[in-house]
Amino acid sequence: MFTAQGPTFRELAVQALSSVEHGYDLLAPKFDHTPFRTPDTVLDAVAGALGRIGPFGRGLDLCCGTGAGLDVLRAVCREQAVGVDFSTAMLAVGRERARPGGPPAHWVRADARRLPFGPVFDLVVSFGAFGHFLPRELPGLFAQVHGVLRPGGRFAFPLTAPARPGSGGYWAMLGFDAAMRVRNALWRPPFVMYYRPFRLGTVRAELERVGFAVQLHALEEFGRRDDGSPRCRMVVATREDTPAR
């Protein structure tokens, strides 16, 4: 799972015993060499799907990390691409490794739960960050996204189908979440990283509650399961001309 350029076991252990912010500050120089970075196959699939919907004007990458999602924005946005993250080191690595071309990119340090923007964006994307938010935080997070989009603006992110109960992936994810709960019960500060609670039904209900209209786009590059359902979807939530509740 890790390349030779990735973090050592000791470095991962130190990160796991830190806060989320400090942990990612420590991991930043080697983050792109870990499986935590969103794979290019997913980024390319989302960029292709958004290209069929767009183009867009200004875009925001929520919890941008080292900026892989910013490359998606710069491919589909004409005016500006902004990355926001609360890890100073992740932002610094992103600035250093930013690719040339496309609209100008800007990097902003901020908490996604308190975004320092008005309704100026046409598109918000996010990749792999939702496990760092507790279920009770989702309504506030989605309300923040709603508030920075112009009417008609879109919030888009990939969402993979959950592993089949009893499969290897199911037990691996269950074991990971259980280990994180034990860690957080025994150690402070907590490190929030739970991916199983972020399910389509819950996510869709919370998005609609704050004023989004939700559509699902199958990412056919990843195929379909035995029952015909997509292995991976792109969720597209559109801000309607009504205020968030």
Automatic annotation (TrEMBL):
Which Pfam families does its entry note? Answer: Methyltransf_25 (PF13649)
Cross-referenced CDD domains, in alphabetical order?
A: AdoMet_MTases (cd02440)
Q: Which InterPro entries does the UniProt entry name for this protein?
A: Methyltransf_25, SAM-dependent_MTases_sf
- What biological process terms from GO does the record include? methylation
Q: Which species is listed as the source? A: Streptomyces minutiscleroticus
Instruction: Please name the GO terms that the record assigns under molecular function.
Output: methyltransferase activity
Keyword entries, A-Z: Methyltransferase, Transferase
**What are the residue boundaries of the Methyltransferase domain, all occurrences included?**
60-153
Protein's recorded name: Methyltransferase
Organismal lineage: Bacteria, Bacillati, Actinomycetota, Actinomycetes, Kitasatosporales
Top-level taxonomic group: Bacteria
